[in-house]
């Protein structure tokens, strides 16, 4: 038995005239949709951020700056991303935007939810109001100046965001970014506020233990007196064990 496969045109010709009209309209609609998708792909070639995915569902009961009101028309906003290639260039553009007294808002290209979250974090460092508009793959953030914008910029947080973006890589997920963002930066030097430094002896500047100390009294009851060695045969140590601060990643005993 031979099975013949009908072509699309033969299938159309087998339909009644009224259904052929509907067939042609459907094919034209699909062709328009295909051209629109091709145009969107070309537009996204200039987008430095990861393209958004379609939302499969939204959680209720949580407020998020990303879920702001989208009742206004989005057609009036034209993304200004010709000079933005990554979070570092975005940070530079924000500083230029703050110095530009003639502009009150800056529109960014469409991007996915995680990229918008990073933009919101960066905007908060500069005291900028950030919100997202649009829906689906066309959702994009807008940064707006406030009376506090540019005052007391949180430079430490800016550095952490940029470092985390670089370490986690472009298009990374929230977990990768958070792991790099919350990682403590170890410089091997002193902590802020006068903490311990590399090689410092713990308790070196502590006051001498008084004879009223419980441990001191226990040693005296066992026959020990100040200046004696410890141990049954009096052959133990005189000075207490010392602990040194180690903040670098060198192995124990290594010098370089």
From TrEMBL:
Stretch list, region Disordered: 1-79
Gene Ontology MF: a single term: nucleic acid binding
Biased composition (Acidic residues): 66-79
PROSITE patterns: G_PATCH, R3H
Compositionally biased spans, kind Basic residues: 51-62
Regions that span the bilayer: none
Basic and acidic residues bias (residue ranges): 23-35
Leader sequence segment: none
Residue ranges annotated for the R3H domain, each copy included: 84-147
G-patch domain sequence ranges: 211-256
Record-given protein name: Protein SQS1
Lineage, highest ranks first: Eukaryota, Fungi, Dikarya, Basidiomycota, Agaricomycotina
């Amino acid at each position: 038995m031979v099975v013949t496969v009908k072509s699309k045109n033969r299938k159309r010709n087998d339909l009644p005239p009224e259904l052929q009209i509907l067939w042609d309209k459907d094919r034209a609609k699909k062709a328009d949709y295909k051209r629109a998708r091709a145009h969107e792909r070309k537009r996204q070639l200039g987008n430095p951020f990861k393209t958004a995915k379609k939302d499969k569902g939204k959680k209720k009961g949580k407020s998020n700056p990303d879920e702001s009101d989208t009742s206004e028309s989005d057609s009036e906003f034209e993304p200004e991303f010709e000079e933005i290639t990554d979070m570092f260039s975005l940070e530079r553009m924000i500083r230029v935007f703050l110095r530009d007294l003639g502009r009150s808002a800056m529109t960014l290209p469409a991007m996915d939810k995680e990229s918008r979250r990073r933009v919101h974090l960066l905007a908060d460092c500069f005291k900028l109001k950030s919100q997202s508009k649009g829906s689906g793959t066309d959702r994009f953030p807008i940064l707006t100046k406030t009376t506090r914008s540019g005052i007391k910029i949180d430079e430490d947080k800016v550095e952490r965001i940029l470092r985390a973006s670089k370490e986690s890589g472009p298009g990374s997920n929230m977990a990768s970014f958070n792991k790099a963002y919350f990682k403590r930066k170890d410089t091997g030097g002193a902590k802020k506020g006068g903490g311990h430094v590399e090689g410092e002896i713990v308790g070196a500047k502590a006051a001498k233990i008084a004879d009223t100390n419980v441990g001191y009294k226990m040693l005296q009851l066992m026959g020990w007196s100040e200046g004696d060695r410890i141990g049954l045969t009096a052959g133990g140590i005189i000075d207490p064990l010392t602990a040194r601060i180690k903040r670098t990643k060198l192995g124990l005993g290594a010098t370089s």
